[in-house]
Structures are given as C-alpha cells and as structure tokens.
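Changelog note: in this version the structure field was regenerated for every chain. One regenerated record is shown below for reference.
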Amino acid sequence: MDISVDIFKQNKIKYDWRTLYVGLELNLIEYSDIVNYAVEFLATIQKLAFKTLFS
C-alpha cells in the first residue's frame, strides 16, 4: 500500500520530514514523494528568505 503526500494535502493533514521518514521506513511512502517535498520545502524557504531580505 502506497500513501502519497497528495493524500495528506487533500485531507489537510499536517506532515513534515518525520512523517515522511516513518512512511519511508514502513514502505508506505516512495522516494519520489520525499524528493517532491524537498523541492517544495526549499522553494518555500527561498520565498520567505527573499521576502525577509527585501521587505
């Protein structure tokens, strides 16, 4: 059984790195979900840093 991060998003369930790690250890989450989360996370941090520096 694979659980996608999209399920968390659709049901408005909060998740973070720990959630993804446990899911990976239990073979419920795929590596691609972790990669996608990392990309989204870094993009969000970059936007926040940009706003902080230039506002």
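Spot check on this record: The longest helix spans residues 31-53. DSSP finds three helices and no strands in the chain.
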